[in-house]
């Protein structure tokens, strides 16, 4: 992860709506508010103006999201009657519901603080703000819409004004699955043997109870050597693999009908040696190439973007820390490097959307690398993410690759001065 900071001689954030414009997510919908029976008032029909906001528009499954339900205008009126019916300050407590739909359904209960200015008799009740939380349980798009709300007043007697409503969608979030690592691996008791000899193979890191295939391989193709087993409660299967195919140069283990980078282990090198001793005065020399790993390093942690003059707005340029990817697995699977960025946040919670950051990637393969490196397309990074670089699947892949990208944050005009910070996360898979 890297922190990105842009400056305009002060602090940056998401621009407020221009005068006369409707703030993002603000909706209006018909509402009927029923005053308590004790008030002796008729139902109040009219529009509710509301807005829902979230603290994280791109959570992962399992994250807790805080939601805010603002009722900006309501048809409900002061339920305290009579000549002395003024509602004092700080006696109004709001509660409400937010309706979830899409990848996750249900309701979120929200509650507001007991805080209000005095309300004269017969006047509309004031704007209220309610907050609550919910846990993301499924990946995909989730919509949030305002539902019914209740305005409780605790002056003289406790009175509840209930407003029935089902508003349109006011906010959206996109939830993603938690990333999972492939921990499947194989270990051989010996790295060589004569044709027909059995080698003890330990396959680990599989789901308990999974059907595991242990097979010989020559390059990217499987050989005739194969056995099956079931992973125990610890996700381990131990088998004796007879190696009869003289072309076998490695052993793999996998789930499913065929090996894949997602459900298979990396190859463990194995050599089939001649059954008969070498001829007199000659010696057979065998060298074994051990497979390595896929990994990356990055130069530096922070990225400082250029400054933008207040008022004009414009582009704040910069460059990510150079990333070096090393692929020493020796298998057929390529790799991809992706990135995504959070919103830029300044003092007071002012934000510039992460979608305002774009990049132009570049990628270079070191001499001798087997795989070509393809940079991702120039464009928006944002919270949804974008491809930085990748290499394709091939019979045999590997190499060292240098990845760079210039980045530009597009700052809206008249963004308040200051420093705005976001987090850029790079993921190698």
From TrEMBL:
Residues 37-59 are annotated as: Disordered. It comes from the Bacteria. This is Beta-xylosidase.
């Amino acid at each position: 992860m890297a922190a990105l900071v842009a400056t305009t001689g002060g602090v940056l954030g998401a621009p407020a709506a221009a005068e006369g414009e409707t703030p993002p997510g603000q909706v209006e919908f018909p509402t009927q508010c029923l005053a308590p029976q004790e008030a002796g008032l008729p139902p109040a029909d009219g529009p509710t103006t509301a807005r829902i906001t979230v603290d994280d528009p791109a959570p992962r499954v399992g994250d807790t999201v805080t939601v805010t339900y603002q009722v900006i205008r309501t048809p409900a009126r002061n339920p305290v009657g009579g000549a002395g019916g003024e509602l004092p300050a700080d006696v109004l407590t709001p509660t409400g519901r937010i309706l979830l739909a899409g990848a996750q359904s249900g309701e979120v209960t929200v509650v507001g603080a007991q805080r209000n200015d005095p309300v004269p008799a017969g006047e509309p009740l004031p704007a209220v703000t309610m907050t609550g939380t919910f846990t993301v349980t499924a990946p995909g798009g989730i919509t949030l819409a305002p539902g019914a709300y209740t305005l409780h007043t605790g002056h003289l007697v406790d009175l509840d004004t209930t407003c029935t409503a089902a508003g349109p969608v006011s906010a959206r979030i996109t939830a993603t699955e938690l990333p999972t690592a492939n921990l499947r691996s194989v270990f051989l008791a010996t790295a060589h043997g004569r044709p027909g000899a059995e080698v003890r193979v330990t396959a680990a890191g599989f789901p308990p109870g999974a059907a595991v295939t242990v097979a010989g391989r020559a390059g990217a193709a499987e050989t005739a050597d194969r056995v099956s087993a079931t992973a125990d409660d610890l996700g381990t299967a131990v088998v004796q693999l007879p190696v009869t195919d003289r072309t076998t140069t490695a052993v793999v283990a996998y789930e499913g009908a065929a090996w894949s980078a997602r459900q298979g282990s990396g190859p463990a090198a194995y050599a089939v040696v001649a059954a008969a001793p070498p001829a007199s005065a000659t010696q057979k020399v065998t060298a074994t190439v051990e497979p390595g790993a896929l990994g990356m390093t990055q130069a530096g942690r922070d990225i400082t973007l250029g400054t933008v003059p207040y008022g004009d707005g414009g582009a704040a340029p910069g460059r990510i820390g150079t990333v070096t990817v090393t692929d020493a697995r020796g298998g057929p699977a390529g790799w991809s490097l992706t990135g995504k960025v959070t919103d830029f946040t300044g003092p007071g919670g002012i934000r510039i959307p992460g979608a305002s950051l774009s990049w132009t990637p570049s990628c270079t393969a070191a001499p001798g690398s087997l795989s070509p490196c393809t940079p991702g397309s120039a464009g928006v990074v944002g919270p949804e993410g974008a491809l930085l670089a990748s290499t394709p699947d091939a019979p045999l892949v590997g190499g060292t690759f240098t990845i760079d990208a210039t980045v530009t944050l597009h700052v809206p005009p008249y963004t308040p001065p200051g420093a705005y910070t976001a987090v850029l996360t790079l993921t190698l898979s």
